[in-house]
Amino acid sequence: MRTEQEMMDLIEKFVVNDPNIRVAVLNGSRANPNAASDPFQDFDISCYVRDVQPFKADRGFLDQFGELMIMQSPEDIEDPPPANDGHHVYLMQFTDGNRIDLSFCPVDWLRTMKHESLTMVLVEKDGGVQDLPPPSDKDFLPEEPSAKSFDDCCNEFWWVCPYVAKALWREELFHAKSLLEKPIRTPLMKMVTWHFAIKTGYEVAPGKDCKNIRPVLDPDLWAKLESTYSDSEISNTWDSLFSMGDVFRITARHVAQEYGFDYRNQEDCNVTDHLRHVRQLPKEAKTIYD
Known about the structure:
By secondary structure, the chain is of the alpha+beta class. The chain has two domains: about 5-140, Beta Polymerase, domain 2 (2-Layer Sandwich); about 140-280, Up-down Bundle (Four Helix Bundle (Hemerythrin (Met), subunit A)), CATH 1.20.120. About 40% of the residues lie in helices and about 15% in strands. It is built from seven helices and six strands. The chain has helices at about 5-15, 55, 145-170, 175-200, 220-225, 235-260, 265-280; strands at about 20-25, 45-50, 70, 90-95, 100-105, 120-125. Strand 4 and strand 5 (about 100-105) form a beta hairpin. The longest helix is centred in the middle third of the chain and has 27 residues, at about 175-200.
């Protein structure tokens, strides 16, 4: 596997030797001074060019980066539809394990665009890039909840739970899993993120899909969060639903206490009682409640 320095030298040589490219920046985890380094980190490179079309018309220049395992170009995919905004991207996984996400954007974008905080200028040929502060993850720090956003999150979580109960009673496993992994896990992780942010003073980024939260959470809460993922057994999926409720309740009460918000305790109790009832409801039942 080529080293980080070898890859960066290769990328910078490509940028310097192509007169079409006027600016190149590094984004993402390799620009993040707080990110743990590992061999799976991508090289996220954005090139600002006079003309994007040559990079779209002839892909031969990509050979210089190494032997490809697989490549994807989102602008060439029909579903989901491309942005069609004038830029072009090559996502490249190489056989030696390295990966480069290489984008080409019109140089005019530099006049109006706002660079994210994890941006490091690699090459600047015309002095067209404003002075950027040292890379940091400040753009990825959590924002404090408002009373409304907190209340909406609570309502959304408990509102969707009965849908999962219905699917599990019907033994519609795929539908239940789909509900658990989007409309329920989304507000759950939003609440967990606020809980994490309070504990870290809103100074630590939780990371993509909350990958950085484990060291901060209490071990019991982390174990409970892990138990929200289950196998394909209906009974175990029920257990994961109740674990989600437990984690949501613990974290939401902490957030509510921190900010003086009202927690929807009655809805929590009503829905949780309903979930327990449906779990015990016989399969031959003609009504939910007598």
